[in-house]
Structure formats: structure tokens, C-alpha cells
User: Fold this.
Amino acid sequence: MLAMNYRGPGRVRAEEKPMPEILHPEDCIVKVLRSCICGSDLHLYNGNVPDTRVGSTFGHEFVGEVVELGSEVNKLKLGDKVLVPFNIACGKCSFCRQGLYGNCHESNPEATAVGGIFGYSHTAGGYDGGQAEYVRVPYANFGPTIIPEGMDLDDAVMLTDVVPTGYQAAEMGGIQPGDTVVIFGAGPIGIMAAKCSWLFGAGRVIVIDQNEFRLEFVKNYAKCESYNFRSLGDPVEFIKKTTDWLGADVCIDAVGAEAAGSAMQTITGRKTLLQAGSATALFWAINSVKKGGIVSIVGVYGPTGNLVPIGNVLNKGITIRANQASVKRLLPKLIDHVQKGTIKPKALITHRMPLRNISDAYRIFSDKLDNCIKPILIPPTAKE
Ligand SMILES: NC(=O)c1ccc[n+]([C@@H]2O[C@H](COP(=O)([O-])OP(=O)(O)OC[C@H]3O[C@@H](n4cnc5c(N)ncnc54)[C@H](O)[C@@H]3O)[C@@H](O)[C@H]2O)c1
Ligand SMILES: [Zn+2]
Ligand SMILES: [Zn+2]
Assistant:
């Protein structure tokens, strides 16, 4: 089958790889109909995630058709069209029982932090991902969710990560009615966090980025304010000034390790990898939230993190909440929002590209070329 193949930092190809096989009675095989490239894939692509092995296939956002079933799968049948949460979760361990599906202990037992994630390095369990024609899906009685009748596959694929992550970013912010919410990052995740902040009763939503096209898009899509940090001078001072010098009630980091905006952070966190990514957006979030405020982090960083103003976290008494999104927990209410039209996720898809052209797709998304917000990959076996 055709699949994405990682060759080292900055180098990916589409190549022939062996078909995936059922390895456990609760596995199924899914023929991929759509997959996406995510901002999280860029951390792998740029060499920021430990133990990303040459030869692995990325891709944690995909939908497809069930084509093979392990002997103990009883919740699915052949031909079912499913959307597959990016977290690999057993549904039964003590973490899953608390709804912490991003922290499943069964799918990645060697780690005490994150659970298994499709196509996300051996740090996240070493599973191959869905930027391929076929993919093995473990715990098939739990994760894969039947796509509701009539739902567009483009909307469905956005429910595997982007919509739940944006929603959980707003949820972890503990937004109270009338709150001012500042979101760093106008990528798909920041755009969705802005949209979902209103669902929690925000009174003002401000998005900060440097990409003019994305800032214009989010202003229209999420009906919020948006500002370019390149023309703000100091974004922290700007936010304080616009909030009566108190700071925002809630700040959301929807950028993570690839952040721009500080030469020192970029050199230490992205160029020399002396720290696990550049913490510029997180730094700004901590310093521009009000005393007693909440910082919600969905932007992904590597296992260690330096050069963050941790002393300010203490002195301001800030609550910081962070996690991978618990997709399966949020799906029922988010499917409802998509079906009612309150959230229209496919509007974020700007590029549809054949899986064969994956190296171009990574380059366009990584360098934010051609007004790209979200690229979607179509495998040759999937008929449009
Ligand atoms: N926690 C989760 O479950 C989860 C799920 C999906 C994605 N993520 C993470 O969320 C982050 C965003 O993902 P995405 O797909 O939107 O990525 P993306 O790369 O498309 O978007 C990131 C945006 O941040 C902007 N940016 C860079 N530096 C900035 C700064 N200092 N301040 C404000 N904006 C800045 C960039 O211009 C870009 O538009 C990534 O770190 C990704 O790994 C987390
Ligand atoms: Zn993702
Ligand atoms: Zn579990």
C-alpha cells in the first residue's frame, strides 16, 4: 500500500509499505478515506519529538471504512464508516474510566505521561498512523465511532482532533460568562478554540498570530478580534492595556513548540534543541493572564521545558491546565454541534492533495504557504 514514510527531520515521502495486519483480536483494519496533517505532525517533522523513528508513518487524524475485523470485535461490522479519535484508548483502565482518554495506561504502558497516539513516535507507543491507504486500529470496540448518517467526511475527519482539541482548550480555561479569553495561535486548533470559547459564555475573544490570512479567517469564522503580534510591539503589554491593566481572565496556548516571536526561544528551542521547543506563546500566556487567572495549554511541547516564567505562575497564583484532548469523551456533544451547524469544521480545509504528493503537503503546511490552514490527504484507493 501507499503510505507516508518518515526519513528524518524535514524529509517525508510517499512510498510502498506492507499492508497492516491484525495483531490482537480487538484490532480492526481501516481503509483510509481522508487523513489530515496537523500542527502536531510538524513537531515530528521538525525533529522535536524524541524517538521518532525513520520508517514510521505519521497521521493521527483520519476517517475510513472498516475492511477487516479481529475475532473479538463486536461493536463494528465490515463496511462501517468510522471516525477514529487520535488518542488510542482502551476504555477500561483507571485513567480511561475517568474520561482521560489521552492518558490511557494500556495503550502506552512504558510511559507515565501520554497514552498511545496514532503515528506519533515511539514516545506515544510506536503505532503507525493514517497518512496511508490502510491503518491498524487497536481497541476497535472502544475508539472508532460510526460516522452519523449524512455527515460529510470532511467534517468527520475534523472531529478526530481539531474540533475536540479546540473545544477542550476552551473547556480547560474554565471560562465564566463575560470573560475575556486570549488565544495564542490562529492555526486550526486556535481557530476552533476561539469558536468554542463563545459556547462557554466568553464576553470577548482575542486571537494573536503572525499570519495575516489566518488572522482574517479567524475574525470572520469565529467572530472575534484578531491581532498580528509582529505589529503589536509587546503582545503582553497590548493585552494588559486592553484589559484595564488587569490581564485576560483566560489565556490559551494553541501554538506549542514551533512558536515564533522570540529570537532566544527560537535558537534554544527550535534551532539547537537545547530545550523542548520554543515556549514563546506560553511565556506570553503566563504574563498576560490576570492574577488568579487560568492558562489552558493544548500546544504541544517535548518532555522537558525550560525558559518558561514558572516563578510568575507561583506569584500570580495562576491555574494551568493542560492535556491531550480526550476525543472520545467530547464526541457526542460535538457531533451534535456539527449536525446542528453551530460548528462547521470543514470550512477550515483549504487544501486537498493526493497522498502521493505528501512531501509537498508537509512543506506547504509547515511553511504556511499558499494561505494554507488545514490540508487533507486523499489516498489513491479512496474515491472522492
Ligand atoms: N493537546 C492536543 O490534544 C492537541 C491536538 C492537536 C494539536 N495540538 C497542538 O496545538 C498546536 C497548534 O496546532 P495547529 O494544527 O493549529 O498548528 P499550526 O502550526 O497550523 O498553527 C500554529 C499557529 O501559531 C502561530 N504562531 C507561531 N508563534 C506564535 C506566537 N508566539 N504567538 C501566537 N501565534 C503564534 C503560527 O503562525 C500558526 O498560525 C500545536 O502545538 C499542536 O501540536 C494539540
Ligand atoms: Zn492533530
Ligand atoms: Zn485506557
The pocket of nicotinamide-adenine-dinucleotide (ligand 1) is lined by residues 38-40, 42-43, 161, 165, 184-190, 208-211, 214, 229, 254-256, 259-261, 280-281, 298-300, 324-325 (CB under 6 Å).
